[in-house]
Amino acid sequence: MKSAWSNAWTPRDRRPIPEWAAENVTLAPVLTVSGAFSIENSLHFEAPFTAFRSEDVRELNILAPPRSAKSLIADMCAMWTIECDPASILHIFPDDKLAKSYAETRFMPMLRSVDSITEQFDQVNRHATRIKEVIFSNGLPYICCGPAISNLQARPFRVVIGDEIWCWPQGRLREAKARMQDFARQHRNKFIGLSQGGEQGDDWSDQTESGTMHEWSVCCQKCKKLFEPVWDGKRSDGSAYGIRYDSPAESGSRLDDIAFALNSIRYECPSCGHPHTDSRRVKDFWNVNGSYVSDPAGNPKRKTFRWNSLIIDPWADQLEEWMRAQDAYDEGNSMALKQFYQKRLAKHYDPEAVERVFELPALEVFSDDAGYEFGTLLVDVQQDHFWALVMEWTSDGSFRIPTAQKLHSWSDIEELQTEFKIPDQRVFIDGGQGSRQAEIYAHCASNGHMDGRVWRCWNVFKGADRSEGWKHEVRRKSKTGRKAQFAWKPYSPVQKGDPLVGLRSGDERRQELRGKFCKVVYWSNPIIKGIAKVRRDEITSGNERSQVLKGDWNDEFARQLNGEKLQKVRNKSTGAESLRWVRIGQRDNHLWDCLCMGITAAAIAGLLNAALPE
């Protein structure tokens, strides 16, 4: 009774959270730094603590690298709340196993190091204390758990903490924040979100970008100007700043190049170009003189604080990781690059912004028209428009591309065909749009002409994930006993496309189309795209075998030409990994598909050797 009476009249501790924690909390032995809590070497922690205490802030997000002590901020906020502003607290981790380990080895030992909270433990019924849950004598719980939907139902909480939200299932963040709804109506709720970078467009990126962003910026030792320590930046004149290093005059092995770069690493100021070295002195200077630069846009009740690993970890380790990620990217694997952005730079990965697009070395005019006699028109069909590519080939497999266009009607396709004098039988329409297949077949079969007794018309191409190709009979079996011969090719034998399939019985076009068929050919996605990548590289390197005419369509063509990449994909059922062509973010890839159809058309015509080993 005496203790309860004393506690009731004890004034609330109004000191800043770091000051309270320094006096009351002993860090758990499992942490890198043990002993008394201090932010002396991490002054970028101070602003998030202040935001948590602010009555004007309801949600606090910390976007930072792994192992950068962001969870320690949440720990101190939770313990301060238990002691100074009692509330029900829900702490959510990526899974229950991690929640149990975290509570057992880290949070509970620190919680018990606070004398006044230890007294509350002594008053708690032993059945109300578990590894992941404590119900204090005032009836308020602290619970840590995984993000399973069953953990996020029924009970309300005033404070919710979300840890490593980037790997939560989509939609689970909304469910977690819904636990605070009762207190949100009273403007008493508090949410803390902690995580490395996620992917652009996921729940975590929406959560961090919808609030006021505060980027930790450091001070140049020479000019004393603040700047955000980005990895690689561009000044207005196009020159680079950020992490800089030298390359050897003559490139040797990749390991030698990395070793040479590590010996010259520095961080150049964006304003004066001063080279900062990776030393304790520089990072201490940045710590003492740094501050947050805020973007006022966004919800002021939701604040996001971000810093990256350049202010914490050795630059040499990061540079080596960066260079190896670039090597992997050049080989078609972007996973290491993605992880570098998410973990080291604490950024949401946006393939559209990060993946490289090469500038096309386009020609003002084609120097010689001789030999480019095999003209083709390739058309990718979308729901309400088309993308078209014209390719002109020579007999030795060289090609040139005079135009690429976005079209809006079937008549636009006919006009482009007429402009470049493309024969009907060399127009190839993508038939992958299932919802428009009947329409595609009808237009292909109807756009043609009689060649003797043969109907020559537009063709339908369809991509297929078939890595082994198709078996073709190249010589029939004879009556005299000669055996048939077969060959494997990256496209299927010709099939008949019936334009009447899918047309209503009363459709006027049935009479016109009766007896007409279009050719349908499937092409191997992995094989043809492998060939197309070689020709794409020739385009970007300026090889004479693969030429592009200069035009206002070049930038869009270059962007779409790099709309896909070869990447390792894991089979969820078997765990096996395989290389597959995948789309880069939301980047359009329609003209890339047109290039692949052009490669297929040239292979069918015998302009390219596309025979496969048996």
Write the layout of secondary structure elements.
Layout: H1 2-9, H2 17-24, E1 26-27, E2 35-36, H3 46-53, E3 59-63, H4 70-84, E4 89-92, H5 96-112, H6 115-123, E5 133-135, E6 141-145, E7 159-163, H7 172-178, H8 181-184, E8 190-195, H9 203-209, E9 211-219, E10 226-227, E11 232-234, E12 240-244, H10 254-262, E13 266-268, E14 275-276, H11 280-289, E15 291-295, E16 299-306, H12 315-330, H13 335-344, H14 351-354, E17 374-381, E18 386-393, E19 399-407, H15 410-419, E20 427-430, H16 437-446, E21 448-451, E22 454-457, E23 459-464, E24 470-475, E25 485-489, E26 495-497, H17 509-513, E27 518-524, H18 525-541, E28 546-548, H19 554-561, E29 564-570, E30 577-583, H20 590-604
Protein described:
It is a single chain. By secondary structure, this protein is of the alpha/beta class. The chain contains 20 helices and 30 strands. The strands form seven sheets. Strands 3, 4, 5, 6, 7, 8, 9, 10, 15 and 16 form a ten-stranded mixed β-sheet that branches. Strands 26-27-23-20-17-18-19-28 form an eight-stranded mixed β-sheet. Helix 2 (17-24) packs across helix 4 (70-84). The chain is elongated.
